[in-house]
Amino acid sequence: MPWEKSFEESDVIEQAMEVFWEKGYAATSISDITDATGIKRGSLYNAFDGKHDLFVRALLKYGGDRRTSKLRMLETVDDPREAITMFFDSLVKATLDDPDKKGCLLFNTALEYSSHDDDVKKLVSDGIKEVVTFLEGQINRGKELGNIPDSVDTRPTAKALVALVVGIRVLGRGAFGKTALRQVAQQAIDLIS
Amino acid sequence: MPWEKSFEESDVIEQAMEVFWEKGYAATSISDITDATGIKRGSLYNAFDGKHDLFVRALLKYGGDRRTSKLRMLETVDDPREAITMFFDSLVKATLDDPDKKGCLLFNTALEYSSHDDDVKKLVSDGIKEVVTFLEGQINRGKELGNIPDSVDTRPTAKALVALVVGIRVLGRGAFGKTALRQVAQQAIDLIS
DNA sequence: CGTTGTCTGTACCGATCAGTCAACACTCGA
DNA sequence: TCGAGTGTTGACTGATCGGTACAGACAACG
């Protein structure tokens, strides 16, 4: 058996993800990634199919590590209204805590790139659907438990909440400060009150 | 006096704006612009300072032609609640009518580029503030006239509405269809009801 | 008609891009 | 010990990037 790789693919994907996240797909060069990872050009092309392949894998990793696991965790919260509140709180917190103001890789991609590539478009679309489904589930659960009023229309409300999520993530990159973001999050909670 | 320009600067800016709008700043090359306008490279650099200068001018033109004039028009509507409704309706309509799904240049820029350049950052920030101010004004006017309830908290609500605007524009690029966008717009109106 | 000053068109610049390739390093089974 | 097979490396490719230089086209003056 031959020589083994000197790096973990998932580590490289993680670091590549950070670069794509910060700079965007178009503005990220392979050299940026080799600089960030320390992996040489040839090794990178030996392990991956190229820039696009790396980006897709980064998106998948982002989805699994950051989004899906977070939503699964929140689904274990007893009070669904509290779960949604926690969701928005963590969103605002993540936005405020990031000194680079990178926003959310999913939405950054939705704007920069989704109109150009079908693979990526689908990943973005699925990621957003996942959030909508989570919110719909929580709203329905809340209505069953009686701490979200029946007057709340589940599907339109879930979609509006996602739109607010997008707004928070985009405006959090610079246009809105702490107070404004918290106000928006509060308005989101008001939508299910 | 010497030879005059064979093109209108504002025409070139308009066409360059379309290219930037569709492809994003980083992904747009000078060749893309010369192709789209028919202007040769040298003439373009003779008339403008370069790619960045062209982009800033395109952003300014977008702001003036599309945003500011629209908001001024809506401010002449008697019923401020109706003005906000029309604002969201036209937003959804513009999003649905665009076959290229370009979204909004302002928000596209907010995500792709605002973290890299201070001039552009300010333009984006000011553009968003303009919309917030418009919405605050209409909400206050509606409260005075009595067709928006006093229980609506002007500033947080205006900010949430802008967040929904962003959401509609971003999600309208692919993730959300006609029904979903209209539902989100309706939820926006519900926020001031 | 010639001078003057601006605009046009294109060749060209160095830098950088994504991606390739062949020489070399290394491990392991035979 | 050596060949097979994989990983690493850095030089290299052709294309394209943003931007420049300059020769020629043109119009308004004298």
Give an account of the 3D structure.
Chains A, B: It holds the Pfam family TetR_C_13. Chains A, B: One of its GO terms (molecular function) is DNA binding. Chains A, B: InterPro entries: Homeodomain-like_sf, HTH_TetR, Tet_transcr_reg_TetR-rel_C_sf, TetR_C. The structure is a homodimer of 193-residue chains. The first copy, chain A, has a domain of 132 residues: Orthogonal Bundle (Tetracycline Repressor, domain 2). Helices cover 73% and strands 0% of the residues of chain A. Chain A is built from nine helices and no strands. The longest helix of chain A has 28 residues. The termini of chain A are far apart. The mean pLDDT of chain A is 94. Chain A binds a DNA duplex (30 and 30 nucleotides) through helix 3.
What's the arrangement of secondary structure elements?
2 copies of one chain form a homodimer.
Chain A: H1 9-23, H2 30-37, H3 41-47, H4 51-75, H5 80-97, H6 105-112, H7 118-145, H8 154-171, H9 178-191
Chain A binds a DNA duplex (30 and 30 nucleotides) through helix 3.
